Each structure stands twice: as structure tokens, then as C-alpha cells.
User: Fold these one by one.
Assistant:
Number 1:
Amino acid sequence: MSNRFIALEYREYCHDGRETCGAFVDNLARDLARDPLLNHNLSNSRQTDGTANDMKFPSTSTILLTLGGLLGLLSGAAGDETNPANVTAFPGAEGYGAVTPGGRGGEVIAVTNTNGSGPGSLQAACNAQGPRIVVFKVSGTIDGDVKIKNDFITIAGQTAPGDGITIKGNLAIDANDVVIRYIRVRTDHDGDALGGRYRKNIIVDHVSASWSSDEVFSLYHNENVTIQWCMITEACAKADGSHRFGGIWGNQHATYHHNLIAHNDSRNPRWASGCGYNDYRNNLLYNWGYQSCYGGEAHQKGDRRKPPIEFSAINMIANYYKPGPATRSDVKDCIASPSSRGDGDYGDWHVADNYVDGFPEVTADNWSGVKGKSFTKLASPWQALPIHQQSAQAAYTTVLEQSGCSLPKRDSIDTRIIEEVRNGTATHGNNGIITTPEDVGGWPELRSAEAPLDSDGDGMPDDWETEFGLDANQAEDNSSDKDGDGFTNVEEYLNGTDPTEFIDYTKSENNINSLENSDAK
């Protein structure tokens, strides 16, 4: 039974109201239960060479978890005017978090100052109830932690006039249906710079995170997640000199692609225990210290999820590994070091098409770069949602060109790190591994600029509305969809697209980030 068939059946049942969706779940689960392939349990499907068969139908519990993930992906896409089935959060959104609606169709809230809280602040926008799209009338550094507390939010950092937004603190995701784009999180104290657990339908795009003394970017034990085009860099040390970790990743149905991970000692990333289905492609890792990535045990002790996720299945495909000055000689060729806590705790891994700079033998045989024996080889990858995949070498170039908070413009921190990766150098700390933000000069000053005139406060500047035949004094037209392609008018502005031109964004060839492929940069 294909995902497309499930989606069509789901929309048929749910078109007239979500109260009928329970019948769909019951019927589909009953159909799956009749399928003899359900008896194909992964634990009994080892091949004689120690590998596992394709994981199409691992077990009854996994089938139900997969079904739950699919329904989570589709729950906001049952087919109304502002959210037709399969339209992504924005053009260029890919993977398992791609179809969250975020704040689509909701209130537009403008951030007008860089205060840590209070009226006009980013925190106030995050505290608001209901679907909301957050735009910025100011650039600069927000001094303080920010917590997303309520569901259905889109944070559009690309709208900041001037040099963009940096959060000097932690950004916590404690809500469902979250879209975060084009901001920086450079913390000044303990705790993950960016993190969240036990939530669903999240996409983080073009975010730069750094300087945490816990993990820089830890998003795990969630459902339906995409982390794409981000920079996770320069982890700092705890008071005792320990840590400097990139992050913990691992979510039930998750995609990670075209991210740059650089200048972290370890956890690049650490795969969470019991992390479910995770697909990691076209990422670039540079200058890890004593560990690239590890983890991926099958079981999480004290798992709070209901039902618990009792397996880890990890694709690591077409990524680029570039050791740097801080990379210890015994781990320069290490793609991953899978972990377990004993028999029955092995995760399932498929590792292929990765490029390890300076180690042609590992590039030719990726399994020689997977250390230890505490894992099960998958003969082929689990069948993840596709992305616009490149070769590892092509992704290296594209990631350096486009990753991180590149709009409105890259700051001096990201610009320096990109050049260090490109040149194979490190200019601060102990060969690029730092202890505090002061080692690299701290937070750069961000200039603001005058925001474009928006008379009706609908998130669309007057000049843009006039250009495309909208009413600059009619705020309600921001949630309309002038061209009927699934993106509201204000989203067309945020996405750098034409609100008068219908484009079928459900076609892969049209699902391209216009902001990174235009004169916007």
C-alpha cells in the first residue's frame, strides 16, 4: 500500500470533517493487519551475512507507528482553500516536516523591538494563541531566552530589515506545527542553543546555531521533523571544560539534509536511543574533535513516548566528511560509531555514497568507516521521503554557498566559518574548538534598517501589494490565495514568489526555494 494511496484514502475519509478520520484509521489498520507481510518482523529477518532485509514491514508496532507518522503529516492537509493536500510549508521545504502548515492563514504579528519580552517582542509573538506568522520590523540581537509555547507558528526571519536577527540565549520548541526560518541562535549560557522534545510537525530551515555549552542543536524524540540548510557550529565548554557537543538528533520520521556541522568536539550528531526512522543526507561535517557521530541504540530507557519507539533505523547517505586541524588522527576516517547497551539494543544502519576527504578507501567502502560491531547493517536504505539529493561532492559546494542564516545576510561569524571549512583551516581556540564565545570575539553588532511601509499591517509591504494588484489598505487579503496554488498572499511575499502565477508546488521540480535562487540574496 503506497503512501500516495494512503493520502488519497485519508483525504476521502476526512474531507467532510475530522470526526470521520477514526474510521479511516480503523479500516486502514484492519487492512494492514490482514497483510501477511506484517509477520515479517525485523528481529526475525536477518540475512546470513548479518544484515537486515528492507524494512518495509518490520513489525506490527512499527506499522502502527509509521501509520501514525503518515497521519501526522497529513493531519493539516485535508484539503481546504489555504492548505490543499501536499502543499509544503514553503517552496524548498523537504522531508518529514515539510507539510506542516505553521501559521498559515493566521494572524500576522510584527516584531518591532529586540527586547527579551513584552509588547512587540519575539517572545510575545511566540506566546500568542492560534495560527500566526511572525515578521520583523527590526534587526538586531535579542538578549534573552525565547520559548515557543503554542502551536501553529511561522517565524520568518528573512523579513528583518538590515543584518537580521540573532537570539542571545536559548530557543526552545515546546509546541507543534512550527516553521522557523532564517534566524541565528547564539547562546551565552547553559542549555541547548536550540532544542525541543516530544512535539510534532517541525521544520527548521536556514538557522545558524552556536556556542552552547550543552548541545548546540538538539531536536529529538519528536515526530515528523525536518532540519535543513542549517549551521551547527562552535560548541562551547562547560565550567569543567567538558562537552563542546554539536547535538542530539533522532525523531520518528525525520529528514536532515544540507546542514553544515563544524568545530564541535563530539555529537556530530549523537543519534538518540529509540529514535525511529531517520534519513540523513547531503550534510557536511568539518573539524570534529574526538568523535563524529555515534548512538542510535534501539531502546530509550524511561521512554516517555506513548507508545515507546523501540527501534532506530538510520540512513546516512551522500554526506561529506572533511577532517580539520582539531580532528584526532584515529577518527579522521570515522563516519559513525554506532552504540548499544547490550544484546537486543542494536540500531539498524544504512551507510552509503559518503565522501571522506583524504580517505579514498573509506569513500569506496563506507562500511570501513563505521566503527565497532554494535549495530545491524541494512542491505538497503529504509524508504524515506525523497529530497533533491546531490552527490556528496556537489552537496559540499551547495552547503557552503547556501547554508545557515543567509538572509537578509550572513553575519561575520558564519562568513568566517564558511571560509574556514572551504580552506581547511581554523582561526580561533584550540584548532577551531573554542571554550567561550569571547574566543571568537562574541556577538557581532547587527545593523537595523527602515522596514518597508506596510500601511495595513498585513505583513506585505505597500509597494509589493501594488505591484501584484493587491490592496495596501485591506489587511484581510493576506490570507487569501490569489493564484490558487496553496500559498496565501502573505506567504508568497515571504517566499519571494509571484502571487498572481499559479505553480503546482506539489511537483518536485517546482519545490525550490526561490529566496536562494533569485536576486533576493
Note: The CA atoms of residues 130 and 148 lie 12 Å apart.
Number 2:
Amino acid sequence: MAKLSFLSCCRALLQSNILYSPTQSWVTRKFILVSKSVKVGNRQFGIFGSFTTEISRKEQTTQLGKTPHNQNSLEAVRQSWLDFLQTVTTGPQGVGYLLGASVRVSYFTVMSLLGLKIVDNMNQLRKSKKRGISLELWRLIVGMLGECLTACRQDYSNIRYGYYKLPPLPTRRWNDILPATLDYLLDVRMVQARRRENRYREIPPLINSDFPEYYKRNFHFQTDGYLSEYSAKLYEFQVEVLFNGVADVMRRQALVPLFNYVHSHSIKHMKLLHVACGTGGILSDLAENYPQLRIVNLDLSPYYLREARRRHETYSNTYIRFVSGRAEELVFRDNSFDVLLNIYLFHELPPNVREQVAKEFFRVLKPGGMLIFVDSIQEGDRSDLNRLLQMFPQIYHEPYYPSYVKTDLKTLFESAGFRSANIYISWLTKVCVFYKP
């Protein structure tokens, strides 16, 4: 009761203008919202010039409901926080989710700021030599927090509707998070050094050289690319820092179409193939919600597969397998799986390989099977984020990303034989559902 009373007071305070009006007035006086640019290494990028103009609210309707996108940064964050509180303060489960989400977002936002501070006292990310967070980063951070709150509200709504269970509190994984924190902070300078000098071929000597050329690089400028145990242990932490702690939240949107499919079919002998599973970011959610589901996880990196197996040893009673292999040459027979799940792969594939992978997906799915495709949003999905989509591949070394954001996914998969169904949007993530006739 005390927690609920406290949250009710917070909600009432935010609904009033006691804090908001003077804060907005002060920020308006101190920060004139004009278009700026960000310098990263020797490159100059424009950032969020759209904050300078009056942008109307854009409603995007998905299967999960309506999500307003408003670029008035302080107003958007305030409204997102109000909507979030209103959604979660409906019972004890909501309070638990609020606690977990707040700890997670706050922690990884702080890690993001520490990472920026370590990089030469942020000299690479501002024009002036004044100390402190620059105007560009202030706008970006505030805007991202608003988006995080909206994504969390969407996530909790799915939990309330019964699409999936409440995820465990982050305290359950502190034994992984704390060592990863130290490794991340030590690794930041090495990542920035590669970014500044555009070095992306610093991968370890390979015992097995049977990797495609497009794969042998430092994606995101991360140490060792995807080809070392060190990289595998650090990867999930780096992704959460990048997305301010809501990477898992966005991945979980894939469980909505899976719920609908499972409850209209028999799960007794159902098999799911998870292509490009990485270190298994969504595997715990799959195992906890569907312990009877037979899950086969495939990835090209043996190091990431070993880390995925280690992180999910507690699910030993669940049917989970790990297989090494390429997505464009799947090592399974035709018509083998009922569901195929693919998360954050296609933006790291060359265009011709994407076509091969789509055909392989179609081949291994059973007739009537479902493909759940999860990846970055594309140009036109969120017009207010188009500038960010242009910056991302240059700052994080994603050479195939510019072609991905322009790819017509519907045409790509229908050419492979699929029939398109629904599309879900959650901030920077897009979920597309396709069926094999």
C-alpha cells in the first residue's frame, strides 16, 4: 500500500504543472533548439535537426495498439512517464515491473553516459571545449528516455493481456552484469580507437577459416567482432547500453505473434528454429513461456553459441539444442519446423545473401508454418528517426545497413514464397510476420 500511495503521489505531481512549467521555461531559455552536428572522429554528422520545427503528432497503428510519437522532447518524456505510470500502477505485478524496468533503464543509461565520459571527456561528441553534456547529447538522451518509457508501457500491456509472463527482476543476473560492467568500461576506449581510425578488420586469427567474408569484421567496432569468447560475454551488455536497457523489451514483441500461433495449434510436437540466436537474448523468455516447445538455436559463431548454452543451463529440463551453421545454408531438411524466429540478422547481411536466407527460411518451414522476422525499423517506419538511421551505420560500422533500410521486406519474402501478415513496431525494432502457404 505504501508503494502504491507513493506512486499515486508521483503521478499527481507529474499531472500538475508545479515541476513541469518552470523546468520547461528554464530549458527553453537555456537551450535554443537549433540544428547542430555531432563530430565522431574525423567525421561530421547532423543530428536531430527536426527538434527545431513544430512537428505534428504521428499516430502509428499496430496490432499492439496506437503509439504516439511526439518530438517535443520534454513534453514527450513527461507524457510517456504519465502513460507508463498509469499503465503499471494497477496492481502488485505492475509495481514489480516498474521496479525492474526503472532499475534496468537507469542502470544502462548511466553506463551509456559513463562510456561517453570515458571517450576523451566527450571531446569527440561536441564542438566546444566546455565540460559537461553537450546540447545535442542532452536532446538525444531525453528523447531516448521518452522512447524507452513508451516501449516499456507497450511491454507491460502485453504482459497484462497474457501474451507472455512477467520477466524476472534484473537482480537474478547481477552475477553476469557486474563483471560485464567492468569489461565494458575498459573496452570503450578500444572501440572508440577503431571508430576514429575506421579499423574494422581486427579479428583474431581463426582456427576455422570457414566463415563468409562479410562476417569477418568488427561489427559495431566491437573487440574481435563476433569471433571470440570475450566478445560473446560482453555482447548483450553492449546492446543494452546502446538501447538504454530496453533491448529485451523490443525483442519480446516477437512473443505476441508466437502466442497467437501456439494457441491456434498443438504445441505438443511443435518445433521452433531460432536463426542467428547470438548469445540467446530471447531464449529465457521462450523457455519460461513455452517449456514444452522444442527449440533449436543456430548461429555462425561458436563462441556465441557456447555463451548462449552457458547462460541457459538452468533450463536443462526444456528441449533446447544449439547448432553451428550459416543462415544461407541451413543444415536442416525441408519442412522441418513449425516456427522460424530471426532477430537482428538481415541488417548485417549483403543484399544477395538476404535473398538466399529468405529462400532457406521458406524451405525449412512446414506448410502453414510461421516466420517471425525481427530487425531494425526502416526508412518511412518512423520518419522522425530517419536521421538516426542514416547516422547509425557510420558510427557503429554496419556496412550493409544502408541497403537494408531501403529493402522492401514484403517483396523480398513474397518472392521467396511467403505470404505476408502483420507488422509490429516497438521504437527502433520492427516485427514482421510471414506464413508459408
Note: The chain has three domains: 2-160, 173-242, 247-435.
Number 3:
Amino acid sequence: MLKLGLSGDQRYGSHLPDNHPSGTSTARRDPLQPHLLYIGGEDHHLRIPAMCALRDHGFRITAVASGDPAPFAQAGIRYRDFQFNRFVNPRADWAAIKGLTKILVEEQPDLAQSFDTKPSIFLPLAARSAPGVLAIRTINGRAFLYSSRSPLALTLRPVYRALHKLAARTAAATVFEIGDDRAFFERHGIAGKMPVLIRGAGVDVEGFDRALSSGPSPAQLRQELGLGDAEVVITVTRMTRQKGIPALLDAAARVHEVRPDVRFLLVGPRESEGPLAITQAEIDRHAPYVKAIGPRSDIPALLRLANVFAFPTEYREGVPRVLLEAALAGLPTVTTTMPGCAEVIRDGWNGLLVPPGAPPVLAAKILHLLANREKGLAMADRAAEYVRREFSLATVVAQHANLYRQLIDRASPARFKDRSLAAAREDTCSAL
């Protein structure tokens, strides 16, 4: 039986990347540590706390992503670059599958887990050329294709299901963040051999608390952003139509008519979002009561300065990380009834839910929270307690580690026994 477990002092110092062109560390590796590839996109750095926690569980981690490698190097996590196009581009998708296949063949990991829409199709397809790899796809919602009713989205839905049917043949397991997606995949016969429900990616509660205590004060940020002592409604998301930004702007105008001193703070990328992005002109029409400040690294501090968190998504995503963070920040929340949001917020108990794409209802709920502070804060307290109990990083990582152990035990226990014997022979030869 493979023994797993690392001491905490190894968390920030092992397997540092060097100048090898593949990003492979030349440090000696423990043959009894299962090697896990953790595959994602440009925001994969947000999963670094999970990778570090998995390392503490005894796994050797290599991050595979399309973002900045610097945060991974800082955390002592090996990094492989993996570029892919987030939008519809079959030629680029084929190139991405070939690129991921090359990484799998070179790395020969024991396990590989993918996150986000495209990587979770790419990985099982690429794993056909690396049969020893236990491929795990993660379904973080059904994204654009099932959030939009555009002709393109409707046309591509059968293609999406067909690709996942192929992927299901190779995937050793499929992790679903929400029950609604698992039911959809099972209904269409594409859930695969081992469907598992693990709610969300988890939130690093201790890390978030540290960021709150060490970040800039609300007074500093209010001065920097020109907010004064205004009531602030904040959202943190990509500035796209599927994320409900047009509905939020409409709601902001309605709130402005009733409470003209309220300011809406929009935090997140716009220019990188391609054809799905709202235009700067759409935002500018709502000045000065709407401020869009782009992507930021001080999200905990920004949440703390606000009075209400509004998350107007119309997107079929998994459990939104920012809803968990808003809860930890003690912020009264209004969001939509999309399945991922409803995993976190129970209407009237720990926040408020509104139908997606309903600006009048959204505006009314925002005004309700602004006018009923004590009720809003009581719901926020319940949300914080609920998130700490159900969605903590420790809870979610433990569930993933248990899944990995199950897969290893089922698939190849002899593999690690042979590897241990080989390592013992190597140690004997080295001593001669």
C-alpha cells in the first residue's frame, strides 16, 4: 500500500523548477510519491493553494497552464506551459490536444486532472496516447454553450456532447462541482466510469483571512478609488454578457434613481474577453455611479470595503469562487438562481437569489440589502459559517486526495511496488 504524507515544512521548498527547457526539475524525486499533473488555463494560479495542500498530502505536483509561471515558481511548484484558445477555434484545439499529448508522454504522470471547459475535453483525448495515465476531468459548469441560446451555441451543443462521450471512454473519473451537471451528464450517457461530486474548488480560508488582515484598509482603497463614504455595491467577474454585466448596469441605473449616492464597483478583466465582452462605451454611459477598475490582486480588501456583493451571472459555471470569498468577507450577497450559485446561497437564509437577466428584481434586492443592514449582515454571518464548514480548501482537497488514492489502488498498486524496488536498487548501487 502506498504511504502518503508530507511534513508541512516541505510545502514551499521542494521540486523548484530550473532552466531545463521542459520546466522539469533536476532534483531527485521520491519514487513513492504519485506524480499529479494539475491542468488549467490562464487563471490556474488561483489553484496554487490547492496544489500546495495536495503536496502536503503526499503528491508530487506539476502545474500545466497558460498563465504566468512566476506564481508557481514562487510556491515551489513545477510548471509546464500549455497554450490553448478559449474561444471556438477547431484548428487551435487540435494543436492544443497534440501539445497536451506531448506533455503527458514526456512527464509520464500517475494522475492528471483538468479544470475548465476545454482542458477537460482535451485531457481524456490526449490520454489515449498515454495509457498509463489516470485522467480525471473536472466539470466546472457547462459554460457558454449552455448559457447562450445563440445559433452558434445551439449548433455546438451536440458537438460538445459527442466530444465528452469520447472523453468518457478514457477518463478514469469525472469530478462534478454541482449536482445539476452530474445529472445532465448521466442523462446523456457521458458521465463516464466513475462520476464523483465534489462541491467546488474550495477556498483557502486561512489564506483569505491573512490577506484581509494584511491588505490595504477600506479607507485607503476608498481614497484611491475616489469612493469617499459612499455605499458601495461590488462585483468581481469577467466583464462579459454571459456574466450578467448588462443586467447589472441596468440595475445600477435603477438603484441610482432611488439612492443616487450609491457607487457600483466592477472588478475584473474586459479587454481579454473577446467578442463576449461588454464595450467600454456601455460602462461609460453609467458614469459616475459605475466604476470599472479592471483585474486586481487585492480582492479580499476590495470586498471588505463594500456594502453589498452583487453577482449577476447568467453563465452555467461551477461553484463560483468569488461567492465563497464574498461570504468570508462578511458581505451581504445577491446573486442569481444559476445552479452553481444556488450551491452556495440559500434564498433568504444566507443571501438573496434573483432570476438571471432580471434587472428590476436585481435592483430591488440590492436596495433591500442597503436599506436593511442588520438583516443583510445576519445572512452574511450565516454564509461565512456555511462556507467555512462546507467549502474550505482542506475539505475539498481531502476529497480529491481520497479520490486519487482510490484510483491508484484500483489501477496499479503493483506499479508503486515495482518503483520502490527500483529505487532501493538505485540506492544500493549509489552506495557502492
Note: Residues 1-29, 420-432 have pLDDT under 50 and may be disordered.
